Amino acid sequence: MIEHRVRVHPSAARLPREQQLAWKLAEVATGTPAAAGLAPEAVTMAQNRVIDNASVAMASLTRRPVAVARAQALRHPAHGVGATVFASGIRVSAEWAAWANATAVRELDFHDTYLAADYSHPGDNIPPLLAVAQHTQRTGADLLRGILTAYEVHVALVKGICLHAHRIDHIAHLSAATTCGLGALLELPTQTVYQAVQQAVHTTTATRQSRKGEISSWKAYAPAFAGKASIEAVDRAMRGETSPSPIYEGEDGFLAWMLDGPDADYRVRLPEPGEPRRAILDTYTKEHSAEYQAQAIIDLARRLRERTGNLEKVRSIVLHTSHHTHHVIGSGANDPQKYDPTATRETLDHSVPYIFAVALEDGTWHHERSYAPERAQRPATVDLWRKITTVEDPEWTRRYHEPDPDRRAFGGRAVITLEDGTVIEDELARADAHPAGARPFDRPAYERKFRTLADGIVTADGQDRFLDSAARLAQLDAAGLDALFPAVDLDAVAAYDATLPKGLF
Known about the structure:
This protein folds into 2 domains: 271 residues, 2-methylcitrate dehydratase PrpD (Orthogonal Bundle); 137 residues, CATH 3.30.1330.120. The protein has a 4-stranded mixed sheet with strand order 8-7-9-10. It has a two-stranded antiparallel sheet with strand order 1-6. The chain has a two-stranded antiparallel sheet with strand order 2-3. Helix 1 packs across helix 8, helix 2 packs antiparallel against helix 19 and helix 4 packs antiparallel against helix 9. It is globular, with a radius of gyration of 22 Å. The protein contains 20 helices and 10 strands. Strand 2 and strand 3 form a beta hairpin. The chain is of the alpha+beta class. It holds the Pfam family MmgE_PrpD_N.
């Protein structure tokens, strides 16, 4: 790995492009080894994430934001080969297929994550890469090269540059990663990828208001927007168009005005040309449909359920946790919506007090039932929920940023005080499904997740065909990529889509 220093430079300095971060990211794309040089364990994990994405997409097909994105995409027919939209069997323009499919993947907040200096869902890179791979008739091996490149860049940026501290949404890192993945997939020149990265970052810098207060359906659309913008940026760059430069280091650029200001100084570690792309192995998926920092909290609540007994006797519950958890999904966010029983699902899955209350009551978690309005508005739940607060514990913050991924912790300690003064305490550092947890997610777990979420949507034979194709991703030819779209009951989906109001298209 090579550590690159990234800081602001005045225009008069004329920073050579070879010293700019966007160029360094582009070099990762163009220096990614061919399929034969990819690390086998990284390839296996990429296959797992293709399965994971399809799992959550199948479960979200008749959710309104996903149906709206699909309806928009289907109004943009393919010119040329095009790309498939989940649950349609129809090919549309690649950027619109990416829009619809990425929304389906993101809607339930149920796919993979990587947390470091900033937040990310690296699986968001896959839908636009798959769309372009289909449109350009690339192979499964080409797609794998793109996926592993995108994960490499995404993880590096999330480790090195914090967006959240400046209330910038994390799709800015996503767009750069997707663009690099597209560059590797298509084997583009470094100059082309460099220009496309700068265009993508410039057009996808947005505020974190999409994840604050009453969280809306835009939370699902935001990564899809980044993927669509990345495809369009690559198209323009391939046609010779240039970009605002240097996008990161310029005196009126990303670092100077969106992040740490004129004195910004970051370190980003990137692989050398030919070095195996293994960053995907540092990432982890979700067993539960909720913000990642809540994964261990759900497991902890299930563990505490029997010890706590009659929940009507609870006086208070305090969750001692990291700065990020306290301020993003805890009471430290100062969002009254996190305690509102009429809040949106998107708000509730970012409310760890709500999540802990329901998991403590039910001893389980479900991607739909746990968020149902009648569940959130249950009087006993509301009473318990409003007794739960979070506090930042410096030790949990330190563990959150632990350099060793096997020791990094995203959980917390629960202190439950009963009416009679009895105190019940327990803690959990990592979710059970984390690679260093009690039950690390393996291929059988990914397959179970897919079969569970696809049940009643994809036939048993259809499930088998999809899983077989995903497991052979490296061997698939261009036509074989079609099998990565599980066959569903199109009539049922179309019936739901027919209930939607019309838009412009």
